[in-house]
Amino acid sequence: MVSLALLKATNGEVMLDKVTQAFHSRDFTEFECSDNFISLTLSQIKKYPLGSVFSPKPSEDDLSISLSSKIEGQRQKAIDHFFRVSQEAARAQCRYVHVWPGRIEGDDLEKKDSLLRQSYQETSSSYEEEKETFLSRRALFRNGFIENFCRSLYQLSKVAPDTIFCLPTTQKLFELPLGSQELEWIFDEVKAKNISYWPSLSTLHLNEKMGFEESEKALASYSNLLAGVHFDDAVGLENLYPPGVGEVNFKGMSECIPSSVKKVIRYHHTCSEYELVTGFDYLRDEGVI
Asked: Are the C-beta atoms of 240 and 231 separated by less than 8 Å?
């Protein structure tokens, strides 16, 4: 089962026109879109069902829908937000909703993340030391935020028991969750049947590239909890490229992915219709989809 993700809802009509043509020319079976784009998309791509829904991440200076926030009122606002998303998805006969866990606040981790990436790109001899220092500092601040997220996710799992809430692996190192250890913590703490794992293969690749965790290990560790995966490629430290133009080893990683999980091809809104279909063809020729 292969879906096509519709990103950047603000460019809706243009993106939908390209995507509709791609759907008609290839064997896509479902689509994924943002919660504020469901009605328009359903009206345009009429014969294809909605497979999964995501809610656009807030801007960098807006923590008001963070499920891990230190402020109870903001956590409740986030719970209410994702509950409304789950209800809108349910009205479209969709059970899968992606949640954004939130970010770790404190110690200026966002700036330190940026500096660490710069050090990696410059192939600095001190990168490994800087990485370990960053992780040590991050660990000092993360626990309370993970615990807050677990409480929020547990509440969501109870108020919307028919929705499958899907967790990502973050590429931004000041966000949650980073790697298998934090995923294990969350799944062990929440213990709800309607939460699952839905990573982006490009993010797993980039995290491995920067020396955090092997991508295939991260997939294999949670293959029994996978609801789906996002297929997009990466170049340098950037992702959302069409599959086949970058560095991601889709074939190797696909060996860790059960055949039953949903497979969603993600594209940046600037991709052409040609790139949409050639990305699909590349994955099909590789035997990945």
From this structure: no
Distance from C-alpha of 205 to C-alpha of 45, rounded to nearest angstrom: 31
Residue appearing with tokens 């949670």: 222
- Most distant CA pair in the chain, distance: 54
Fold of 59-198: TIM Barrel (3.20.20)
CA-based radius of gyration for the chain: 18
Count CA atoms closer than 13 A to 223's CA, side-chain side: 14
Determine whether 285 is exposed, middle or buried from the number of CB atoms within 10 Å of its CB (0-12, 13-18, 19+): exposed
User: Distance (Å, rounded) from C-alpha 46 to C-alpha 107?
Assistant: 48
CA atoms within 13 A on the CB side of 159: 16
Q: Quote the CA–CA distance of 28 and 41 in Å, as a whole number.
A: 15
Rounded Cα gap, residues 156 and 163, in angstroms: 9
Domain boundaries, given as residue ranges, for the chain: 1-48+201-289, 59-198
Rounded Cα distance, 289 and 281, in Å: 9
| pLDDT per residue as tens digits for the range 93-115 | 999 999 999 999 888 999 999 99
Q: How many CA atoms lie within 13 A of 105 on its CB side?
A: 16
- Give, for 65, the enclosing helix (H) or strand (E): none
Cα 131 from Cα 117, distance rounded (Å): 9
The pLDDT tens digits for 208-241 are 999 999 999 889 888 899 999 999 999 999 999 9
Q: How far apart are CA 153 and CA 86, in angstroms?
A: 13
* 159 contacts 82 by C-beta, under 8 angstroms: no
Mean pLDDT across 12-41: 71
Q: Rounded to the nearest 5°, which phi and psi values hold at 165?
A: -90, 125
Which residue is associated with the tokens 């028919």?
162
Residue 50 in contact with residue 30, Cβ under 8 Å?
A: yes
